[in-house]
Amino acid sequence: MGNDSDTRVEPLRKPRKCPECGRPSTRENYPFCSDRCRQIDLSRWLTGSYAIPVAEDESKPGGEEQ
Ligand SMILES: [Zn+2]
């Protein structure tokens, strides 16, 4: 009777905020809150890989040119 130490139940996995909108993530779409946010992140990642401007330095450290 009256086990104060057992009244506090901590979750096994701490809730993580969705990197897209900041809402608590769900178990199905972890670490995102929904499938929509997951798709957003995925599409951004894919398009980002193409959109990233390649900064080519003429002076490469090490001189690894032919
Ligand atoms: Zn979200």
From TrEMBL:
It comes from Martelella lutilitoris. Belongs to the DNA gyrase inhibitor YacG family. Its cofactor is Zn(2+). Inhibits all the catalytic activities of DNA gyrase by preventing its interaction with DNA. Acts by binding directly to the C-terminal domain of GyrB, which probably disrupts DNA binding by the gyrase. PANTHER family: DNA GYRASE INHIBITOR YACG (PTHR36150). The keyword Metal-binding applies. InterPro entries: DNA_gyrase_inhibitor_YacG, Znf_NHR/GATA. Zn(2+) binds at C18, C21, C33, C37. One of its GO terms (biological process) is regulation of DNA-templated transcription. Keywords: Metal-binding, Zinc. Coiled coil: none annotated. Residues 1-26 are annotated as: Disordered. GO terms for molecular function: DNA topoisomerase type II (double strand cut, ATP-hydrolyzing) inhibitor activity; zinc ion binding. It comes from the Bacteria. This is DNA gyrase inhibitor YacG. Residues 1-20 have a biased composition (Basic and acidic residues).
